[in-house]
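Annual report, structural modelling task.

Input specification for the calcium ion complex:
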Amino acid sequence: MKKLMVIILLIGAASYGTAQNQSSSYPVYSGKDLGLTYSPTAATFKIWAPTATAAKLNLYKSDMGGNAIRSINLSKGENGVWYITVTENLKNSYYTFQVHIGNAWSEEVVDPYAKACGTNGLRAQVIDLKETNPIGWAGDKSPNFSSANKQTDAIIYELHVRDASIHTSSGIKNKGKYLGLAEVGTKNSAGLTTGLSHIKELGVTHVHLLPFYDYNSVDETKSEVQYNWGYDPVNYNIPEGSYSTNPADGKVRIKELKELIKTMHSNGLRIIMDVVYNHTALTKNANFNILVPDYYYRKRADGSFSDASSCGNETASDNAMFQKFMIESVVYWVNEYHIDGFRFDLMGIHDIETMNLISDTLRKIKPSIVLYGEGWTSSSSPLPDEKRALKRNAAQLNGIAVFSDDMRDGIKGSVFNINDRGFATGQIENSESVKFGIVAAGKHPQINYSKVNYSKEPYTASPAGLINYADCHDNNILWDKIELSFKDASVAERTKMHELAYAIVLTAQGASFLHAGTEFLRTKNGVENSFDKGDIVNSINWDLKTQNNASYTFIKSLIQIRRAHPAFRMQTAQQIAAHLNFEKNLPTGIIAYTINGAAVGDRWKKIWVAYNGKQTPQTISLPKGTWKVGLSSKGSSKSANNYTLAGSSAVILYGE
Ligand code: CA
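The model returned the following structure:
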């Protein structure tokens, strides 16, 4: 995420009581029809509000301002449900609800199950979803991708919708919009591809978009001048309006997002949605909390809202109706929008049972779905650690990967200490953390777990359980981190370190993850956690692709090699333990290993990978046999039995 620096907090909840008190006695509604069911002759509205003594529907002509044209009382149904069927065609009208709890009517609220809304998500909208399908939607198909348990084949590109196109260098017309990222054939001033065509050219398999559900922080009437990452959810089942060309008409944002998804699919790319079910932008006045006060959130023993997100609250996936909401929400995005994967923000807040229900449910619908999340929280939670989807419990998750902060910080130094360096920036003491990432945080006989920076034992059951990365939207982008932690290094030296960092990520076992633009040394000018720092800091300057084209080509080649060679994408921890062997007796600062490619079906029968974390060249002797160069950093060279690695460099050799 997010607003605050994410702190890896794995301590228990000693100061908290068990606060899941009254909510366990609430009735549970198991129907799948909460929200609006629309037809041209009737609209049925259902909300769950078990503590209400009355409820009403308000209908409006417009999305903002003006009085309700009608208010209609809802009838009480079973298990806390309130409902009404209006036998008219209500298409395009807007609506809110109010509930009577205690002695008062609540303020107006948008039903969390709403699927369309007007500007700023203030009122939901009655729409005919069929009218939101762009031309060709019926034929939209996700590109082929490996089936379940082969999540290791994913090469994920993390991108913010607006960042992709808003810079003048993008050559894109619909700047900052869903439609901008759907433009193809766009170019920078040197004629190099930008936007979607660039991503296709780079060769990644999945585009992970930062939040594009309806979020709170950008005023959709002023979206030209406002910016936010969007980790502050309001309407989970509705696309964000500021990325659309008309936020007032709920159909437009849906149609334009589908247009983007369709274009990605037809260009061989799959789309992953960044979801933030762990907290809501508002707390007391959140839609959930107005409808059923306190139910959807974890509370402390003293009655206050618990706050493991450090954003004011934390949701309670361990409560039946929020678990139900999460499952139905992700299923809806897959079915209606053809989403190919989810990234769960602060997944450590959610309970393991809910995450596994989500995984099992989604894999029945789409076996190739890609699922991963942050295996940590931002602050402590009252739900016991052993129940939550934390990194240390990753082996209990069914096909959901966690991010490797061990690898991330092993490569470049701690994200919480600006001066700290990692293996790729000369801090060669971090080599064991990097080796731990190379084996995808699993059980391997050659890892000395006591020397790993954070986790002192394996935590994945298989490499499909790990996302390896060097940077993401949080904290400093890699180029800036290298500059800030190594001010003495020249640009040329820092470039080599950056390329080494990505050589490690893209040859390691487990799935790979890149932050957009990092393939051509994107900078955020040293600004950390730029969630609200505007386009000047966040926009992708596509002219950097021209300027740093050698780095781009190097990283693109790494991606091509990874995609072509299953040896870098082994499927089980046993394969990795048996067929990936670290070389012994190496000079300090070198990590080298061989992979038995033949044993895992690779046409490269044997592979030799080496990284030099030191800034000076080092020569090592090669294992016996004939070796060809798969990819090598500049300045390295091979002789008959030796290989000389340039300072801060990587090499991949192979034998056929
Ligand atoms: Ca919004």
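The CA atoms of residues 442 and 458 lie 5 Å apart.
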